[in-house]
Amino acid sequence: MTTDSGIDIISRGIHRRAVESAVWGMAAVNFELMREVLAGGNSNEFVYWSRLLDWRNQTLTPNPDLIYYIAFFDTHDGPVVVEIPAEHEGQALNGSICNLWQIPLEDVGHFGVDQGRGGKYLILSPDWDNPIPDGYITLPSETYRTYALLRSVLDERTQDALDRGLELCRRIRVYPLTQADNPPETRARDLNGEIVDTTIPYDIRYFELLHRAIQDEPWLARDRAFAEMLAGIGIEKGKTFDPDPGHVKILEDAVAEAHTWIRASYEQSFEPFFPGTQWFFPANQDFLEAQRDGFTAHDQVYPYTSRAVVYHMAFIGLKHLGVGQLYLINLRDKDRSFFNSANTYRMPVPDAVPVSQYWSVTMYDAQTHGFIRGNTKYSVSSQTPGLITNDDGTVDIYFGPHVLPGREANFIETGDSQGFELMFRFYGVGPEVMAKQWSLRDAERLEDTPTAQPKSLPQST
User: Fold this and answer.
1) Who's near 371: CB < 8 A, 6+ residues apart?
2) Is the separation of the CB atoms in 430 and 355 below 8 Å?
């Protein structure tokens, strides 16, 4: 006989395990959501956008200033070849190939192993033990499913540059190793104009995605304890996931709590990248080192909570951070108040940003980490047509509900949002950035705008 007290203890146990499982599984949920929404679950097929992105792309913190080329691979039937083409004049490809847990297997393209000269990358399955043919850059993977996130970087904001970028992408090829002697045509689908939403769902769909993500993958040594954790909430390999209404309520309460925990860490846990500013990189050094090494070091803590913080707001894996790209986040103004979309702000970008490709600052909805729906402009970059530069070489960027006359090129409207966040991108990172010999500055609220500030970032629904 089970008492009411016993039932309550079991329910609380399920809740605790569900919270921890949700935090642990964020990277895999993010991967599975992207694979299903963008690729329809298909493998070895690229998706891309033939125009610069607009608000219809509701992925996490997308870049509106370049071309994305993305594919998902499956090595259950053997290794997969990804051919990265050589760059021609006016072309550059920055990208990475990552596994299901978003651990980067290697960077490719301009700042990758092939250094823009092109190369054949061979993704190996976890159980592959056959000889490896010559001529390939081999990428052993601990998961069967992997992906490539490739960015065709434009050298200017023109149609000619866009055409060159698309031409580079069209020369990327993917095929099974078994067909290397006569590769089939690489399939590619243009998602331009389609609404795609891969913002993380913090309800029962979260656990449905996690259930699908683990089905055909091996249990890794570091994650074996989570096999029991997941079984305790109804997620097991080879079994259906069909919780009853009472169970659904427990799980949805748990994933909401996990989200609150992750978001609080995102808001409060990071030291400034540049001393004295609000700019930060949303991962600590322990996580960066552990991820770079594939979480394989036995004497390292397994930082899956830090991993969750990164992948609740981004879809990315970089093997060598601070070389090809660097991304910094800002949630607060100079006075340490969260950005409020009713206010107008000015952010000075110092002279001589140390980049070899370009720099940009992009605005995202603080609730979703995606573009603000309905907006028509999302970023200001060093390539923005008509960009106003001050006499001393600095650039003032403005954010607010209404464009300031004469500052249109340097202004991003806050649109239909309550709060926003900023991401500063460095492409082709100069050594002065990582050495902190050059520093960003914070945005400041202009005095003739409302002063009301939210106490915390608006919560997702």
Assistant:
1) 53, 54, 55, 57, 58, 62, 64, 364, 365, 378
2) yes
What parts of the chain have a pLDDT lower than 70? 1-7, 448-461
Of 130, 178, 172, 127, which Cα lies nearest the Cα of 149? 172
Residue-wise pLDDT tens digits, 66-80: 999 999 999 999 999
| The pLDDT of residue 3 | 56
Q: pTM to 2 decimals?
A: 0.94
pLDDT for 120: 98
Report residue 367 as tokens. Answer: 């609730």
Tokens 């050495």 found at: 435
**Rama region for 208: left / alpha / beta (φ>0; ψ in -120 to 50; rest):** alpha
In order of 48, 63, 65, 66, 157, the CA distances from 51 in angstroms are 9, 12, 10, 9, 12
pLDDT of residue 194: 97
| CA distance linking residue 247 with residue 326, whole number of Å | 42
Q: How far apart are CA 8 and CA 76, in angstroms?
A: 42
Check residue 209 and give its pLDDT.
98
